[in-house]
Fold these 2 entries.
Entry 1:
Amino acid sequence: MQADVIVVGGGHAGCEAAYAAARLGAKVAMFTLRRDRIAHMSCNPAIGGVAKGHVVREIDALGGLMARAIDATGIQFRRLNASRGPAVRSSRAQADSSRYRQFVREEIESCTNITIVEDEVLALLVENGRLVGVRGASVGSVFAGAVILTTGTFLSGKCFVGDETFEGGRVGDAAAKGLSTSLREIGLTLGRFKTGTTPRLDTASIHWDALEPQSGDIPRPCFSFDPVRNDLPQIQCFLTYTNEKTDAIVRENLDRSPLYRGIIEGTGPRYCPSLEDKVVRFADRKRHQIFLEPEGLDTERVYPNGISTSLPKDVQDRFLHSIVGLEDVRILEYGYAVEYDYAPPTQLLPSLMTKVLPGLFLAGQINGTSGYEEAAGQGLMAGLNAVRWMAGDSPAILGRHEAYIGVLIDDLVTKGVDEPYRLFTSRAEYRLILRESNAEERLWRHAMAWGLLPEDRIARASMRDTARVELKDRLSMQRADPAMLARLGLTGRMVPGSTLESLLRRPEITLGHLFDGIDDEIALVVEESVKYAGYIEREAREIVRMSELDNYRLPDALDYLAMNGLSNEVRSKLLAVQPITLGQASRIPGVTPTSLALLRVLAHRVVSRETSEGIPELKECST
Amino acid sequence: MRSNIESFADTIVSVVTARGAAPVAVLRLSGSLAQTIVREMTGMGFEAEMPTHKMLRRAILNGEGRVLDDALVVLMRAPNSFTGEDVVEFHIHGSEPVVHQVLERSCALGARQAGPGEFSLRAVLNGRMNVAQAEAIADLISAGSTSQALSAAANVRGALSKRIGDLLARLESVLIDWRAALDFPDYPTGDGATEAHWQVLSDVADVLSALLAAGRPALSGAFRVALCGAPNVGKSTLLNRLAGSERVLVDAIPGTTRDPVEITLEIAGTLFSVWDTAGIRDDAEALESRGIEMSLARALESDVAFWIIDPQEPIWPDGIWKQAPLAVVMGKADLADLECAERLKKCAYERGLSWAGVISGLNGDGIDELMTSSMDQLRICDDTPHLRRRHFGLIKHAHVHVLQVLASESLPLDMMARDLEEALHALGSILGRDVEMSIFEGIFSEFCIGK
Ligand SMILES: Cc1cc2nc3c(=O)[nH]c(=O)nc-3n(C[C@H](O)[C@H](O)[C@H](O)COP(=O)(O)OP(=O)(O)OC[C@H]3O[C@@H](n4cnc5c(N)ncnc54)[C@H](O)[C@@H]3O)c2cc1C
């Protein structure tokens, strides 16, 4: 079998990778262990949230799948942080998880140049130091120019429930065993992380009427910039709490928790503590909240958000029964922890290609991230870059000032990770420029240039762009007359002849006060850009300042070890990361402004030796 | 946010002669803004009239057009200069106040202080030096970095470092709460700003302004005086009196002084920098209110801010203005009697404000007494930390942003968080601390977040 690009994995990273590569015309073979689990949500049945919602919007602007999939199959949509500032406004939605899987699978299946291969990849095929394909357990050798690994939590995956341990990438899936060896053989270092999930509950056994409901927001926020049809009924989630009895049960049984017995070696994310962790680390909290989230419309499975655990089954039963509403609950699937191999991401170039083996790309949880959105964003970029690499094109890289996906990838390849990485808005230094609302404005031109958008989408994106520009023009040209000021209650506070833009800067004035009939999405982007112009300009100035460093390319073969004058710590960090630009070097933790200046000189020395130009003698021009 | 990182796109400035009492100091500017800066500072066009590599005699002007010094100026146009960029050198009188003002003026016009060896570095990179010379520069920088590190360590040891560390911790505690609320709205992370947060912020602002007040006179040699108050109370008339000429446009329509205007003068052997500021009105329109923001910044930066009141229509400072080192002055003494002054003085004390005296801008009564007596009140603390210029700039930056947070109660939480981050980064870089890391640590250790 022969393909252009092989994608190993049919999770959120794998699907976007395959879809992006296919849109660029590549023939893709997508391996997955189970076809029915393509785009499976291993953990909570929700997409989006603060910073993650931003990524979903970016994926949409870049022509990806995730936004349309959740818009089509969401069963509760919420807008978070509506009044807390434009940079942190985000959308989050509950998915009907089986419809979500189906939507994505159908999209993938309808791409004629994607072949889904239901088989386990055992090894990479390397001939004379060159990557030529992969070996499948039953299909045998498959050849391709580039391979993208998106194996999630599956590499040497090991699950834990109390005293029980079993091999598996997640419950219901086998682990991928051979591949880790193959990766070590080519010279990649692997580390071990862990994560966990909650028990799943039977809806019929929950006393719903005892609980506090939470509904979605109306109008529903959506993720895709294009309208997507969704006639599904919208549901409520319910809130309950642990109590002191729950705590006591957990505490009494800590000695039976694999986490506290030291059986699990991998590092888990601090922002996703298990219930065991919560009880120990936050002993002073009387209760912890639990959101009960149905996994779909036609399923009996309910996801209790807030009680990830790997305690033994009998303890899980007991502590759940101590919770209001869950006194008689039946567990359909017990909570568990999973430990897996990941490849520390400083081994990657910003294109997500490994430094050790050209043509091999890594995306998703294998890079030490966690979360569907983070995985999907990387998958899309890896798919795009794999195709570009084969064509000899320069890598497609999103700047930190252009996208959260850019922040994510730059953080991974520059700073590395010491626990599973997820996005927060505070990771982005230019967060007022990276809003959920303006993702298309930021990215559609890139997407078009990279060939990621079909013609009809380009037309719509460009129409929306024109509408934004026209609206901004109207605001800066049109002036308020006395009648308008009177209508808005601004007489005496604004002078007649003020532009509408200056009116809009006032906190109490919205675009709705000035114009009728403007599309909500367009209105939001433009309004934010006017109201927060001062802050946005501040960030824009800083971007310009930093671009000098980001545009300074470091020569490929710098001998960092021989750079006297740099401290050992800085040298070894530079050696590990091998930054592409001075800007990237400046973001490596521990690289000080002085070491940066020195690096500049040393890099310059290499360049001038290479080009061996005649360099003029020093001219001291001052008198 | 990353303003501590130096970009070569910046135009840099530095005194290239040794510091201290020398008759002449040389200031070198290099970079793309050098042309604009010299034009602004000397009132001459770079390209049109200026020959390159010729020394010319020019007056250096401050922002308001007043002469700071009589100087020799050399322009060296790119690429034929030491650094390969446009370079301007000012040969000026070596007294600290003059040097300081010329430096400050070029920074105000967009330059920043050069890092160690940065001129030479640019020379290397622009091909003005050969490789062997580049090696020497590299040694220089690494040696410089050690001695710099040592002196930086010495500078932030002891009292100052403890104080900054303490301020950082206090501001971090607030930011941790806010960031947790912003990034995890679904968890019990609180609703943002509380009374306790405001208290922390205003305490920190007080400490920062005390640090600034203590460090400034030692740094610049000149006392800074801001003239503030409602429009049309006679601030500009007073300034004109001080300057001895009609320098500020004085107009009977309230609110004409839109940009703060500065003069420098000597009274009884002491140097004063005096700023006029825009009048403060609540209902000022947009442009005016930007002026007022600047006025506020000036008042906060000053050693003393004279709040001038009209005896017939007294308007008192409140809110954030109370953060400034205010002293109330009754203006237009020619229009009022002694009794009236006594009454106003009492009112000032009742409001917790200090009283500085009575003046008349029109006939000049009381002005010299006001300036000299206020000088006595500008205590220079004995434990004044010797702030390096960089620290001073960073503390000032932090101060302005903390005050902006305090003034932004009606802004969304994230905007306040942004300003707070700005302040934290400035203070963090004095101690070389990674603020981002401690915020994350703080969020996850203080809040129980997770599915
Ligand atoms: C127990 C558990 C708890 C989690 N908890 C959280 C959490 O708290 N927060 C959070 O944000 N995220 C959590 N997640 C992570 C989230 O599910 C992942 O981040 C996301 O799904 C990763 O996407 P991915 O595409 O990288 O990998 P996955 O979605 O895991 O997909 C991996 C794919 O690779 C395939 N595959 C693997 N190896 C091979 C092979 N050798 N040959 C062929 N196919 C292969 C699999 O069949 C699968 O299709 C959790 C996941 C699990 C399992």
Entry 2:
Amino acid sequence: MANKADYKITESAAELEEHLRDMLFIRHFEEKCNRVYREGKAGGYMHVYIGMEALAVGWMKAIRKGYDYVITAYRDHAHALLLGTPPVAVLGEVMGRSCGTAGGKGGSMHIYDPKNGFYGGWGIVGGHVPLGAGLAFAARYRGEDRVCLNFMGDGASNQGVVFETLNMASLWDIPCVFIIENNEFAMGTRLEYHASDKELWKRGLPFDIRSERIDGMDVIQMKRQATEIVEWCRKEQRPAWIEVMTYRYSGHGAADNDRQLYRTKEEEDLAWTRDPIARLKKQMMELGYLTEEKYDAMDEELIEEVEKIYIEADASPHPEPDEVYDNIYSDMKPEMGH
Amino acid sequence: MGIETTYRDALNQSIEEEMLKNPEVFIMGEDIGRYQGTFKVTRGFVEKFGSRQDQYNYRILDTPITECGFTGIGIGAAMAGLRPIVEFMTMSFSILALDQIINHAAKVHYMTNGEVKCPIVFRGPGGAAKQLSAQHSHSMDGWYAHVPGLKVVAPATTLDAYGMMKSAIADDNPVIFYENPGLYTLKGVIPEDQNFTVPIGKSQILKEGKDISLIGYSRMTQVNLAAAELLAKDGIDAEVVDVRTLLPLDTETIYNSVRKTHRAVVTYEDWRSGGFGAEIAARIQEDCFNDLDAPIGRVGGLNVPMPYARNLELLCIPSEEDVVKAVHKIG
Ligand SMILES: Cc1ncc(C[n+]2csc(CCOP(=O)(O)OP(=O)(O)O)c2C)c(N)n1
Ligand SMILES: [Mg+2]
């Protein structure tokens, strides 16, 4: 696990700038979501990705977008945005508007975009993990070389169905990469209070699955390792179980307004020294690829872009009342009223 | 003409034909391959679609005993467009997969506003077999029929088992296919035409009558037919309405019958309290109140965990005598 940039950067300036832009965009997008929520324009449960950006950016650069399958839990905005879902449709969904990915029926936790390979967006902790294996199973069944990136939280990795799925994924040679976004917390429960062995990466070993732990705060390393793992999985037609170390700076969800209940300010401050965005910024500046001015300009530009996205999403109406019966089934509406 | 067969073999043939026609249809479940299924619905499949020597075979997929997990994998495969048939050894074991069926399969189409389809069949025996006692005798039909996003079918005849399985496999939505173990040996005739289907969502009148409507599904339809014969001896001409599909419910066929006979007894094997028959009775009451000459009768399973002793078990499962009694009770 490389914590320092003790490796040689071979990526071009343009490539690194794209990584930076992607991460910064997600951060601003998520901050906007938080504001929108506080203003009462979004409701329910909403979970943002602030602090974890390098993880999703790295993995999404490793796959064939729109071909490979991606599935995750409710902390799902970043995955969709990186796969190419229009940001207005993501924010619109968060705000319950008809321009949203599900026309306002899903909400923040249920963003989907199957055309771009994104299969959600699920709210039952751990429940989507077998679904991801099923998507990869379908690829294997058909003899395609798609893989599935199957993201879950550290908390989710305790669910029984995850172990069931690992067993079958190995037994049936399913090309699925299980990715544990270990942000050290399951809501307000710290890793050491929910996992008997904090080294979650070991959980793939009993199933004869390639198992590793990698750093998720260094986007360059993240992307490189993800690329190697994805191509291995594609070629070997075998699953992998990868624990990625990260941290969420925000609360668990928008409804979590007292982080002091489960962690200290000092701990957060320390974690901020690992900020993936600041880290890449520093790396790029050292290489002469970036200046403060250029960074600030990009920052400003993205803030404005997110503002425009918000204005467009906010102009979209809420769904019509008679849509409530639509798409429960593919071929019929249930009788009204029953 | 047609082919004489049993309910079990009609299912076997129906599934086999669809699997031969469409390589995207496959079946998965515990002991469905080499062991040929606990109730032998998948007899002969291993040889037809692979070999006994295969470590695993994606078309006849023997799963570990992990209902929640393999059901989820099936649902994921369906989301990718495959057409899995998931066999539960008994519907009682599908309880371990309720999260996958209800929270995932039944919701994905709605939560994606129609972007993702989930063409999957969940099938298996539900209700009492013989002395399997409390943990192996759940009906589960009413539980599933409660859930928007699922379709629930419960054929009562061999012909319908054959034809409705074809429709279930062709359906783009998750379908619960309820097979009462008491029906597996039921004889019947199926057509030679492999394209024959029986639509989901249509009830049927299996015996016409003018005095009372006996409304049921699955094995209880057979019980109602037997009860109708007993009632005929008392001079009561009963009509037997075979509901066939619980969700979506074909209320029209039910209401038309009630409007003709002005009396109804609803029958179901599931626990009487809160079972699906209660829903049917409530709808008749809401929409046909003025057509009724008597209160709606209800015959259901006793509200107890299924006991083992045969005499107690028989008390719990509604019989034709129970139906006759209920008819006399409403007057
Ligand atoms: C089956 C289930 N139990 C409980 C919850 C409530 N819940 C939502 S998120 C969460 C914590 C999950 O933590 P983790 O898997 O680490 O993901 P993270 O939120 O950190 O991304 C809990 C307990 C739920 N949604 N589903
Ligand atoms: Mg976590």
